[in-house]
Write a structure and sequence with these properties.
Blueprint (H helix, E strand, L loop, with lengths): L2 H7 L9 E2 L7 E4 L3 H18 L14 E6 L11 H5 L4 H7 L4 E7 L5 E9 L9 H13 L10 H10 L7 E2 L4 H9 L2
């Protein structure tokens, strides 16, 4: 992976760079999955964050859960989620996702120091993802929630190494200068 490829992973459509990692333990909760899939997701989340060297816990003292995954067959099911507008900051999220024919949506919230405070995933399982293997989908969603990737990513050994480099204790929890990508690149070589 080159410095330019790393920079592209964290450069948003408006040209700004943001690479943020979790600053607090991750407390996941998953809605809408059958028990057998739920167990796979729990194990993959724990394994993925352990690989990054970051703790997973049962509860966040402030938020309760800070990594939330909502699985639905149709976006209209989100209309029944209490306080969804307050949770997402959007009063028309289900309608917007339906009009875009989206399969998934991810939203981050950040602490004052720029670290990830919460991550919300919304996944529509009746679309292209309906045939996804639970373990593969769990791995993809876990990797996408470890850092503030600006683009959609596909799990790979290279990305796993990049994630681990971003969680190096000497690295900042958040960076907005693209030169940060050079620091990540230097850690990939170790």
């Amino acid at each position: 992976m080159t410095p330019e490829e790393i920079t592209a992973l964290f450069t948003r459509k408006d040209g700004t760079y943001l690479c943020a990692r979790w600053g607090r333990p991750v407390a996941p909760v998953i809605f809408g999955l059958a028990d057998e899939s739920l167990n796979i997701f729990r194990e993959v989340i724990r394994t993925g964050f352990a690989h990054a060297g970051h703790p997973v816990t049962d509860t966040d003292p402030e938020l309760g859960s800070n990594l939330m995954m909502f699985f639905v067959r149709d976006w209209s099911e989100l209309d029944h989620v209490p306080d969804l507008d307050r949770l997402t900051g959007s009063d028309d999220l289900p309608t917007r996702l339906q009009s875009q024919n989206a399969d998934q949506y991810r939203l981050f919230r950040f602490d004052p120091d720029g670290a990830i405070r919460a991550c919300l995933h919304f996944i529509r399982m009746s679309g292209a993802l309906s045939k996804a293997h639970p373990a593969e989908l769990a791995e993809a969603l876990t990797m996408r929630s470890t850092l503030s990737f600006a683009t959609d990513i596909t799990p790979s050994a290279g990305l796993a190494t990049l994630i681990r480099a971003a969680y190096d204790p000497t690295m900042p929890v958040a960076a907005t200068d693209a030169s940060h990508a050079l620091r990540l690149f230097a850690r990939l070589e170790r």
